[in-house]
């Protein structure tokens, strides 16, 4: 007896950026039926269009992804996203955390959509909803506690240095199967040195780098 066919993935990416989620699913060889993206940065959307064309359905501002919009999408199997960290990060001494005047409050948009999709998934039965939320490790303890309490689980910590020549620790919350054990015991892998992938306009003098941002000061090494 042949096993039942697995449904093609229907995915919603919030704060989608340049479409990394879609890229990863493609690299994993997963069959995607629909990929919805909520993003407002014009340059990021331009990169999405260049790399994926009509493979991504654009939704615009996350605050306009209402329950009616979610209902029109139909079933969603995977929700991913990482809300802006600028107002949560300890690096920003003017951070507003979750104040309504800043960007940190956008976390609650992810939580709102997650809650609604989980409710719809329970009502529908069948394929469960899987979800993943990411944000910076460098935030106030009270901010971490708020996110933990809202999402209902502890985060796992992942550093980019496990996979790339860059030190960048992030928190991940979610319900992906084996998520915690895979991160704690990633198994042997070769991490490339920065010297193996030098930018054409730079002279590389180290094997790894700290976190790079859009700030010019972070790019002087």
TrEMBL record:
Residue positions of the active site: 85
Gene3D superfamilies: Vaccinia Virus protein VP39
Cellular component terms per the entry's GO annotation: nucleus
Entry-linked InterPro entries: C5-Methyltransferase (IPR050390), C5_MeTfrase (IPR001525), SAM-dependent_MTases_sf (IPR029063)
This enzyme's EC code(s): 2.1.1.37
PROSITE patterns linked: SAM_MT_C5
Protein's recorded name: DNA (cytosine-5-)-methyltransferase
Organism field: Frankliniella fusca
């Amino acid at each position: 007896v042949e096993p039942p066919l697995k449904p093609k993935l229907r995915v919603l990416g919030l704060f989608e950026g340049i479409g990394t989620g879609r890229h990863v699913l493609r690299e994993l060889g997963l069959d995607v039926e629909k990929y919805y993206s909520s993003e407002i940065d014009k340059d990021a959307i331009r990169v999405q269009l260049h790399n994926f064309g009509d493979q991504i359905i654009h939704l615009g501002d996350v605050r306009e992804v209402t329950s009616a919009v979610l209902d029109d999408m139909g079933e969603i199997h995977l929700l991913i996203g990482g809300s802006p960290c600028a107002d949560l990060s300890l690096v920003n001494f003017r951070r507003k955390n979750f104040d309504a005047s800043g960007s940190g409050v956008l976390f609650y948009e992810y939580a709102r959509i997650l809650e609604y999709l989980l409710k719809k998934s329970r009502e529908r039965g069948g394929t469960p909803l899987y979800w993943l939320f990411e944000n910076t490790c460098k935030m106030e303890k009270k901010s971490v506690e708020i996110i933990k309490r809202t999402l209902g689980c502890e985060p796992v910590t992942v550093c980019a240095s496990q996979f790339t020549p860059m030190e960048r620790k992030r928190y991940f919350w979610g319900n992906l199967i084996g998520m915690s054990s895979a991160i704690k015991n990633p198994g042997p892998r070769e991490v490339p040195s920065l010297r193996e992938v030098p930018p054409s306009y730079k002279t590389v003098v180290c094997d790894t780098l700290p976190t790079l941002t859009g700030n010019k000061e972070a790019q002087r090494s």
